[in-house]
Design goal:
heterotrimer; A mainly alpha (517); B mainly alpha (496); C mainly alpha (494); A: 517 residues; 2 strands; 75% helix; 3% strand; B: 496 residues; mainly alpha; two-stranded antiparallel sheet; 21 helices; globular
Chain lengths: 517, 496, 494
């Protein structure tokens, strides 16, 4: 591959930029520089999007170099439709987050540097195809996130940040241990090669022959290993019951960071499920009992998180639980597509479900980030107040805000015509034939979501005007422009989903092909 | 060539002894020059070294009547550790630039210690190795007892006694091995070929191994380490954790395991269990410490557990991981101690986490905070730093040898993350903010972080990063070393 | 053999005797009026020159001879030991030069030289009578040297104790030796060996062996015959104590080994673990073990450095006794090396103690506080001596131990029967490290207030000590300087 190593550049750009930004003393220059870099990344990502061959579902822009041969480590990056979409999402959300970071006045350059590090970690994780450096980026994204919460968060930031970090690390360590076992058994760290082994079943064989663990036979052994990997991703998404870190972290983090956390970081988990867990352990996850357990967890996640969101009084927490809920749909599809592993007849359904997952990831990233942005705006105006019942009748005082946020809320609800709908629709379309019971139960989640979103609209926008907020200023022009872009995107994607679907479809189809074991 | 690391160090001691009294800055410069020259030689040797060879550095009869030789040689393992010693030595001097009390003596002891350490890593005659090993022990006592803090005499004496008991055990084993093999030679390459009787190995192995492992901080023989580290002055903590503990681990590998593979086979399970207990226990205890330095002290115990675990996995990947972990921990622990001992303690005069919490150090000394955060991340084994790749290898090795223990090790890692975060929170990001800054009184403005400190920190961080991102730089040396006949037992999977 | 030849063979001894007389004469005749320091310097110079001449003499005379009907033997080995003895004497003399405890310079130095002569004869002795006579010559001189500090009542007490115990020991030894004579009809060691060969363990022989061991046990201050040593070392003038601990030990051990190895060659028995066989080795093993344990443990609690060194001397006697267990010629090598280097370090250590006593008035541990500031060179030397005694490489003491232990284990290499003793020895030497370190801690670590009454330490003494320290380092780094020569001798004498 003699072409420009664009993926490496995309990763390194924010990384090096981060170092430079940290060193800049002047706040304004630091901010401008960071913003400029994020625009540059966005431009590069768009260029990548442009030159991506949409008809080909295989990996593109591949770079592969020897790194640590003794550990089977290569520097191996590449993207398919999914990776590309995630890179693009990252590149969109980061400038959004930076643009609303103007309230940060303390240690500005460090803050911007950390955001750039985070971006590097995210892009790196979405493009890496070798466990070793994928894990490096996976963890690299964690550290800046931790400090962003820890240093700039709200009143209870210390326990929240620590909880976040510890949960994630527990997952990471479990995953690391599993991967080391896999490496020990298979001698590889390359996702693609491991996927191949997973497909033809030799991975399980290798694990049971090379990993003598007190005569455990291959089945439970492989399940344990797969469980370790699963835990790592499940914490990140999160899947209940590993979610408890999320609401407090989202609530305590400063708004731009929450945008990044929910918009992009949570996608790392889903991405990991699709990129790593399914190909490697599809056979195991597709087993009847595993399916039952996992789908139950997913249904619980979807329903409970929706109910929990309904019970919350803090806007940020509501949105946090709603995030869990939305990503639950992704997981529902992810676990469902490995079912009936030998049945070719569900090919289209599976492809639809996967397409839905991809779309949902992107859409949720966009929508959730935008929603948190809105909450940030109102928090800024109200002086930190963001309770569900603290407002009322805002529609009258700040109509533009309410209107735009309403659009975003409806997008989150899944209103047809907006972007949220198409993803969920595809997911349910694919999943219903595969696991009717899980899909059916999950619908409850959608209903409850509708209820709590409407509650927000009712309590905050409508109702009697709370006099306290009579003088609340509406969105400024800058803010309007700021939110206009994602809102526009919501409409565009809602009305013309093919813009994305065309790019990802071949990838989804190819994945379905490869998920036949 | 490499032998000059040893010679230069002792020459430096001599020069320092001859320096006129009271000229602290000259003493510093001489010490720095010596350490830098040592590092330079180590680097030159590192560059010239061809992977897989056992490079004879110096070989001449020493005490012919007993068949003892002055035999210095290096394989990839030695070389890695020699390099570490060079780095730690330079780093230690940078972080003790401000020592004003009996400067000359301090650096004389310091360089004697360094010389001994170099010697151990290069000796291929076991008698010589033991000689250097003991040379390294004695100066430690004085450095800690004279220049230390908190219960320094107690800590120093405890450390000295533990070390000496350990070396006594080693001596017993060595003499016995020497006699049993016929009393002609102590050459490692020869003795490694000698088939010691099984019953002999069964007792000799644990004696020698534990003798060395005491210095490596193997649980439950680790208790000297936290007190010693806490009592020691910064440079000494850096060296203690950085290289002296490695002496023990190196001895285990080079002597006990190489000479007595059958004994190793019989005892490895026990050692692995102790190592893992060490990992988890060290981390747990670090979690509840109130003294900043104790946290780091116990973290050393925990990390050295990885080394010991890697050693007894008896496969190339685990062993090379152990060696890499020695290197990595040497760098990282050095850095952590530098922050705690030099940057924080010497400015705030306290190591009580509760007190530090109120100082809001994150504003007062950002450089120290950044350094500690990076070092802390490296220490908890986050990828990208050298610790990660080393622990990764150790665990891969452990999966092969002791799968259950590999999983428990994971628990240790998690606790490791927890205590690192906790101590970071308490020490630097305290919320109470009863007062900003740490000056005891307004008249004495605390000194800013000095240039040598910055240099040292940057150097150590850079090394950890380079090795973490491009471990081949060391692994290509370490791994081929395990192909030499010294390590036949690795190929046989530890079977006799 | 005519007397001229005899004189030639024993020219070194003769030279030393003559030197002793010269020192006495010079001091008595022409130096009465001078101040003590000067007298000591001149006397010491003459004594040293005499010893040097004796060493030179040893180097030029024939290497091997058996004289006086086999009573005395000269072999390269004995000559080497004599050189070592003379060297130790020179150092003793040199550290005495600063002494202030007596004005009887001539007598003092003369007695040291006479004791040396006794030791030299002892080394050459091949006949139990000769052994006894030389031993008494040495001992009597040493008793007197102990009592030399007339201003100190403790000195007299020490001498009396030493004398009484020594006399008792002599009686025991004489009794044992006479039994041997009764059993074998000969006083010559080789003849005794021939007579005893194949006889088995006669009860009478057992008594004889035990008596002899007791006698020597007193001489070398091994537990349980050590009771005189701490008091004697503490009370005696420091250089005398140094001499008792060094030269006399070397000579005693050499002859002890000789009697045991040659005389009782048939009756060793075995002290191997779980396979004890009656004989003299189990007895010695027990004594050695006790000495190592008690000496080291008792040293820990001492407050006076001289007493500490006394207990350490007991412990070292235990190590050296260990050397007797290995019935091989290598034992001479290791024993001589050990005793010599030990002697060197001990003289040095006592020399430093003498300096401290001179400047602070006593030898309490606390008097050593701040010594490293007052006399950095001497402090450094002290560190070397003590670390050597503790057996830290690369100092001579370590190599001595290694050599000794290896030699002990070697004959039974397959079963390692004596390993228990070696383990005990190494374990106790780990203990010893603690108390030596305690002294060093006082010197280097403890920050005390400077005592006003402290006087300066002379550069001459410091230089002497430095030379000795360098010797200790050199002998440790290059043991072959000593061992090589000894080994050649041993090889040539078969």
């Amino acid at each position: 591959m003699n072409q420009l190593p664009i993926l490496t550049i995309l990763t390194l750009l924010p990384l090096l930029g981060g170092f430079i930004v940290v060193g800049i003393q002047d706040k304004r220059i630091a901010r401008c520089f960071a913003l400029g870099l994020s625009y540059l990344s966005l431009a590069l990502a768009l260029a990548l999007w442009k030159s991506f061959d949409a008809t080909n579902g295989a990996l593109q822009f591949v770079e592969k170099h020897e790194w640590i041969p003794t550990l089977g480590v290569q520097y191996f990056v590449g993207v398919d439709g999914l990776g590309l979409l995630m890179v693009l999402l990252t590149s969109i959300v980061v400038p959004m987050a930076l643009l609303v970071s103007d309230r940060i006045t303390d240690r500005v350059s460090l803050y911007h540097g950390l955001i750039l590090f985070l971006q590097a970690g995210l892009i790196g994780a979405f493009t890496a195809l070798n466990f070793f450096h994928w894990f490096i980026f996976w963890e690299l994204s964690l550290i800046p996130a931790f400090f962003l919460v820890r240093l700039w968060g709200g009143a209870n930031r210390a326990p929240a940040a620590t909880q976040f970090f510890i949960y994630t690390i527990v997952g990471s360590v479990a995953m690391l241990l599993s991967f080391l076992a896999i490496f020990h058994a298979a001698g590889k760290m390359d996702f693609i090669e491991l996927a191949e082994m997973g497909r033809n079943g030799s991975l399980a064989g290798a694990l049971s022959t090379n990993l003598g663990w007190y005569g455990l036979n291959s089945k439970p052994l492989v399940l344990i290993i797969a469980g370790g990997v699963l835990l790592g991703f499940a914490v990140k998404v999160p899947l209940m019951p590993f979610h408890t870190w999320l609401p407090s972290t989202y609530a305590e983090a400063p708004t731009p960071v929450t945008m990044l956390l929910t918009g992009v970081m949570s996608k790392m988990g889903v991405y990991g499920f699709i990129r790593v867990l399914l190909p490697l352990f599809g056979l195991q996850i597709g087993g009847e009992r595993a399916q039952a357990v996992l789908l139950t967890l997913v249904v619980i996640t979807i329903v409970f998180s929706a109910c929990a969101a309904f019970a919350q009084k803090d806007l940020k927490r509501i949105l946090a639980y709603s995030s869990i809920n939305h990503l639950g749909y992704c997981l529902l599809a992810v676990f469902a597509v490995v079912k009936f592993t030998n049945a070719p007849e569900f090919g289209t359904e599976k492809a639809a479900a996967l397409n839905g997952v991809f779309l949902q990831m992107f859409n949720h990233g966009l929508t959730a980030a935008t929603l948190f942005m809105f909450v940030g705006f109102i928090e800024q105006r109200s002086g930190g107040v963001r309770g569900l019942n603290d407002f009322g009748g805002l529609r009258k005082t700040i109509p533009v805000f309410c209107g735009l946020m309403g659009i975003a809320l409806f997008s989150s609800l899944g209103l047809p015509g907006l972007n949220g709908f198409i993803g969920e629709f595809l997911i349910f379309k694919g999943v219903f034939p595969l696991t009717p019971w899980a899909a059916g139960l999950s619908v409850i989640g959608i209903l409850v979501t509708a209820i709590f979103i409407l509650t927000i609209i009712q309590r905050v926008f409508a109702g009697p005007l709370n006099e306290k907020w009579a003088k609340l200023p509406d969105l400024t022009l800058r803010e309007r422009v700021l939110v206009a872009i994602p809102i526009a995107l919501m409409f565009v994607l809602g009305l013309w989903p093919r813009l994305v679907l065309d790019v990802i479809n071949s990838t989804a189809v190819r994945m379905v092909e490869q998920l036949k074991f | 060539m490499l032998a000059w690391t040893v010679y230069i160090s002792f020459f430096g001691v001599l020069v320092l002894m001859l320096l006129p009294k009271g000229n602290a800055s000259a003493a510093r410069k001489v010490a720095m020059a010596t350490a830098a020259a040592g590092l330079f030689v180590a680097l030159a040797g590192f560059i010239q070294f061809k992977a897989g060879e056992i490079l004879t550095v110096a070989k001449m009869p020493w005490i012919p009547s007993l068949g003892l030789e002055f035999h210095l040689a290096a394989d990839g393992i030695s070389l890695t550790l020699v390099l570490l010693t060079g780095l730690a030595a330079v780093g230690g001097i940078l972080f003790s630039w401000n020592i004003e009390h009996r400067t000359k003596e301090f650096f004389a002891f310091y360089l004697a210690l360094i010389g001994g350490v170099y010697g151990v890593f290069l000796s291929f005659d076991l008698f010589l190795l033991f000689v250097f090993y003991e040379i390294a022990i004695v100066p430690k006592y004085f450095i800690i007892a004279i220049w230390g803090s908190t219960r320094k005499e107690y800590g120093a004496m405890k450390l000295a006694i533990y070390s000496f008991v350990g070396s006594a055990m080693v001596l017993i084993g060595l003499i016995a091995a020497y006699v049993v093999s016929g009393g002609h030679t102590m050459n490692l390459l020869e003795l490694a070929k000698y088939p010691f009787p099984h019953s002999f190995q069964l007792w000799a192995f644990p004696v020698v191994f534990v003798g060395f492992a005491i210095l490596a901080g193997l649980w439950p023989f680790h208790t000297w380490a936290p007190t010693g580290h806490v009592a020691a002055p910064t440079a000494a903590s850096m060296l203690l954790a950085g290289v002296v503990m490695k002496l023990g681990a190196y001895g285990c590998l080079r002597v006990a395991m190489t000479l007595f593979p059958e004994g190793l086979e019989a005892w490895k399970m026990w050692i692995a269990v102790l190592a893992v207990i060490g990992i988890v226990y060290g981390a747990l205890v670090a979690l509840v410490q109130k003294d900043f330095k104790f946290v780091i002290g116990y973290s050393s115990v925990s990390h050295m557990g990885f080394v010991m675990l890697g050693l007894v996995t008896l496969n190339t990947i685990g062993l090379s991981g152990a060696v890499l972990q020695m290197f990595s921990h040497g760098i990282i622990a050095g850095l952590l101690f530098a922050v705690v001992g030099r940057m924080v303690y010497e400015r705030t005069h306290t190591r009580e986490l509760a007190t530090l919490e109120g100082m809001n150090l994150v504003k007062a000394m950002p450089f120290a905070v950044v350094t500690f955060v990076i070092a802390g991340c490296a220490s908890m084994g986050l990828p990208g730093f050298s610790g990660f790749i080393a622990e990764l290898q150790v665990i891969i090795g452990a999966w092969q040898a002791f799968p259950t223990l590999a999983v428990i090790t994971g628990v240790g890692i998690v606790i490791g993350v927890a205590y690192t975060l906790l101590v970071m929170q308490k020490a630097f990001f305290g919320e109470t903010q009863s007062k900003v800054g740490y000056a005891h009184d307004e008249e004495h403005e605390p000194s800013p972080i000095s240039i040598p400190e910055r240099l040292g920190a940057v150097m150590l961080i850079a090394v950890s990063l380079v090795v973490g991102l491009y471990p081949r730089i060391l692994l290509d040396l370490i791994i081929p070393s395990f192909n030499s006949h010294l390590f036949d037992w690795v190929k046989k999977g530890g079977q006799p | 053999m005519n007397y001229l030849e005899l004189l030639k063979l024993f020219a070194p001894e003769t030279i030393v005797v003559v030197t002793a007389l010269v020192v006495l004469a010079v001091d008595l005749t022409s130096m009465r009026e001078l101040e003590t320091r000067l007298r000591f310097s001149i006397g010491g110079m003459i004594a040293s020159v005499g010893c040097a001449a004796a060493i030179l003499g040893i180097l030029v005379i024939p290497e091997r001879a058996n004289t006086v009907g086999g009573m005395m033997a000269v072999s390269p080995l004995t000559q080497h030991v004599k050189i070592c003895l003379l060297a130790l004497t020179v150092f003793t003399v040199l550290i005495s030069i600063e002494a202030k405890f007596t004005s009887h310079v001539g007598e003092y130095l003369g007695l040291i030289l006479l004791a040396t002569v006794g030791m030299m004869f002892l080394v050459s002795a091949q006949d139990v009578l000769m052994v006894f006579v030389s031993l008494e010559l040495t001992s009597l001189s040493l008793y007197t040297l102990t009592a030399f500090n007339k201003r100190n009542i403790k000195s007299a007490e020490a001498a009396l104790k030493y004398f009484l115990f020594g006399g008792m020991a002599a009686a025991f030894m004489l009794f044992g030796l006479s039994l041997i004579y009764g059993l074998t009809g000969s006083t010559n060691l080789h003849a005794i060996a021939t007579a005893l060969a194949g006889k088995g363990l006669d009860p009478l022989l057992v008594v004889a062996i035990v008596m002899t061991v007791i006698g020597f046990g007193f001489k070398v201050a091994a537990v349980p015959f050590h009771l005189w040593a701490p008091d004697a070392y503490e009370g005696a003038p420091t250089p005398s104590a140094a001499f008792i601990a060094s030269g006399s030990k070397l000579a005693s051990f050499f002859i002890f080994a000789k009697i045991m190895m040659i005389g009782f060659a048939g009756a060793e028995g075995s002290a191997a673990f779980r396979s004890f066989v009656a004989g003299w080795t189990p007895v010695i093993a027990a004594v050695a073990a006790l000495s190592m344990i008690l000496g080291n443990l008792a040293a820990i609690v001492q407050r006076s450095v001289k007493r500490l060194l006394a207990y350490s001397a007991i412990a070292h006697a235990g190590y050296m006794l260990l050397g007797l267990m290995a019935n091989s010629s290598e034992i001479y090598l290791s024993l001589i090396y050990y005793a010599t280097t030990y002697g060197l370090a001990t003289i040095g250590a006592f020399g430093v103690v003498a300096l401290v006593e001179n400047s602070m008035g006593d030898d309490k541990l606390s008097s050593f506080v701040g010594f490293s500031k007052r006399a950095p060179v001497a402090a450094f030397a002290m560190m070397i001596f003590l670390l050597s005694l503790a057996g830290i490489p690369p100092l001579a003491g370590f190599f001595g131990k290694f050599f000794l232990f290896a030699a002990v284990l070697k004959p039974g290499a397959s079963s390692l029967g004596l390993l228990w003793l070696v383990v005990l020895a190494i374990a106790t030497s780990a203990v010893s490290f603690y108390y030596y370190l305690k002294v060093l801690k006082q010197i280097y670590v403890v920050n005390g207030t400077d005592r006003k009454d402290a006087t300066n330490v002379s550069w001459f003494a410091q230089v002497v000590l430095l030379v000795m320290a360098i010797l200790v380092i050199l002998l440790g780094c290059f043991p072959n300087l000593l061992v090589g020569g000894l080994q050649a001798c041993l090889a040539s004498s078969g």
